[in-house]
């Protein structure tokens, strides 16, 4: 029984003979000096929407947090376990990132689960259902719309959830204080897996627009 799947070993071999070979100096500097990324990305776990690939980022450039549905919960210092909040706290307070980007994507399974209230939980714990209940009010409103197709409802909630997460980010004192001082900027983005298009949220209107690529 191999210790790792063969395709992972093969991928690591390619990494060592390719990217690491050309960026070994950068990796050594990061190991010695530590990381200092300017941007945190809150993205979905979905294997098709990796931020490092989409933004062509090198080692040490992005601090990436991935969870189901790219959600940020509200600030709740209740003594429970909060992995997303812990990563956010570390990025803002220790790494002192300058930007936080919440990036959703098309065809998100978590968003689909939030819209579909008829399916049985995947396990008795229903961890996904509980997690996606963070956007339950929006999901109920969107799901009840008969004027949109299923695909339109999915895309609508994917984008609305990004605005929800940004609003929840502002419930964290460390975020709201720094944003107020102009030392931290919050952004929203949505990635279309099928076309590769990236849509960026307009901070004033909340609409999603295509960035101009020169």
- Any guess at the CATH architecture of the largest domain? 3-Layer(aba) Sandwich
Mean pLDDT: 97
User: How many extended strands?
Assistant: 6
CATH topology of the largest domain: Beta-carbonic Anhydrase, Chain A
Give me the Rg, rounded. Answer: 19 Å
Helix/strand order: HHEHEHEHHHHHEEE
Low-confidence spans: pLDDT under 50, at least 5 residues? none
Shape field: globular
Helix amount: 40-55%
Tally of helical segments: 9
Structural class: alpha/beta
Strand content: 5-15%
CATH class of the largest domain: Alpha Beta
Q: Write out the strand line-up for the largest beta sheet, numbering strands in chain order.
A: 2-1-3-4-5-6
Describe the oligomeric state of these chains in a short phrase.
single chain
How far apart are the first and last residues' alpha carbons, in Å? 50 Å
Largest sheet: number of strands, sense, barrel closure: 6 strands, mixed
CATH homologous superfamily caption of the largest domain: Carbonic anhydrase
State the domain count.
Answer: 2
């Amino acid at each position: 029984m191999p210790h790792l799947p063969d395709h992972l070993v093969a991928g690591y071999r390619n990494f060592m003979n390719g990217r690491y070979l050309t960026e070994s100096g950068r990796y050594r500097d990061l190991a010695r000096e530590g990381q200092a990324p300017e941007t945190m990305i809150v993205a979905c776990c979905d294997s098709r929407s990796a931020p490092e690939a989409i933004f062509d980022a090198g080692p040490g450039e992005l601090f990436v947090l991935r969870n189901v549905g790219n959600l940020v919960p509200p600030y709740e210092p209740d003594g429970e376990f909060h992995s997303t909040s812990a990563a956010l706290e570390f990025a803002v307070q220790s790494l002192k990132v300058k930007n936080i980007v919440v990036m959703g994507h098309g065809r998100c399974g978590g968003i689909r689960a939030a819209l579909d209230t008829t399916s049985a939980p995947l396990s008795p714990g229903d961890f996904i259902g509980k997690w996606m209940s963070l956007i339950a009010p929006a999901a109920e409103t969107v799901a009840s719309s008969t004027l949109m197709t299923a695909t339109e409802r999915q895309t609508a909630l994917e984008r609305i959830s990004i605005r929800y997460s940004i609003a929840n980010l502002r419930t964290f004192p460390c975020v709201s204080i720094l944003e107020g001082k102009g030392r931290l900027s919050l952004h929203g983005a949505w990635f279309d897996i099928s076309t590769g298009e990236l849509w960026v949220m307009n901070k004033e209107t909340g609409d999603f627009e295509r960035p101009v690529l020169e």
